Amino acid sequence: MIQAYTSNFTGTGTSDTPNRFPVAYVQALLILSYGATPSIAVNLEGSADGTNWFVVASGTFTSGSPQKLVKPVGEIYEFFRLNIITNTNVTVVASYIIASET
Description:
Blueprint: E1 2-3, E2 13-14, E3 19-20, E4 25-47, E5 54-61, E6 67-70, E7 79-100
């Protein structure tokens, strides 16, 4: 497990550093805090080379915390990152990319 964003992130864009997890089971966990009329769209992205990225799971959230994105079994990439596409009045309190062999 590795933290993907700095605590209390309020912007958009990709997580700081792509994380190398060449395993079968990968998911992202986001702890979110919502303001007025909130919405956040997040992609979990995978890459074979750390340069070319593909969306492996995505979600748009307007309430509830924590939220989870799960990569489908069978898609194996070397690197993973989170990408916040849109963010209106949502603070990412903490976010993690979790990987395991089983």
